Amino acid sequence: QVQLVESGGGLVQPGGSLRLSCATSGFTLDAYNIGWFRQAPGKEREGVSCISNTDSSTFYADSVKDRFTISRDNAKNTVYLQMNSLKPEDTAVYYCATADDYYGTNCGFDLHYYDMNYWGKGTLVTVSS
After folding, report:
1. Using CA atoms, how far apart are residues 33 and 42, in angstroms rounded to an integer?
2. Is the distance from CB of 11 to CB of 17 less than 8 angstroms?
3. Coil, strand or helix at 30
4. Would you write out the chain's pLDDT as a tens digit for each of its 129 residues?
5. What is the dihedral sign for C-alpha 9, 54, 4, 114?
6. pLDDT for residue 110
7. 94 with 122: CB under 8 angstroms?
8. Residue of 23, 15, 6, 22 lying closest to 83 (CA atoms)
9. Which residues does 41 contact at the CB level (< 8 Å), separation at least 6?
10. Direct distance between the N- and C-terminal alpha carbons of the chain, in angstroms, rounded to an integer
11. So what's the pLDDT on residue 27?
12. What is the CA angle 24-25-31, rounded to 5?
């Protein structure tokens, strides 16, 4: 069965960095786009970044642009999210996700939580001094 497992979260000071990993199994990673989402307490789950399966093109939400970098290693069945210059407002549970019909270029076009049907359980990122 399809599984996505996030790891790498933790407590970091403002301005620090973390690298999240999304280990996948049960499907062929290079056939699907992968999205990263986050959900802060009391807020809606929002799309942060995604990477295409066809050409590894990427999308970033304005709030993380130039600070976060998404990448994929199909041989390791893993997608990464490198997060730099972290801010307190980045505090959230971070999830990776995909869907049966989530593939092709322009992955950002369908980066909505209601478009995904496979989710990991999330990893908590806390940015605080």
Report:
1. 28
2. no
3. helix
4. 999 999 999 999 999 999 999 999 999 999 999 999 999 999 999 999 999 999 889 999 999 999 999 999 999 999 999 999 999 999 999 999 999 999 998 999 889 988 999 999 999 999 999
5. positive
6. 87
7. yes
8. 15
9. none
10. 40
11. 92
12. 80
Q: Give, as one character, the DSSP assignment of residue 43.
A: S
Nearby residues of 66 by Cβ (< 8 Å), 6 or more positions away? none
Provide the strand spans (E) within 13-57: 18-25, 34-39, 46-51
Hey, what amino acid is at 46? E
Spatial CA neighbour of 45 closest among 32, 55, 36: 36
| List of residues 6+ apart from 75 with CB closer than 8 A | none
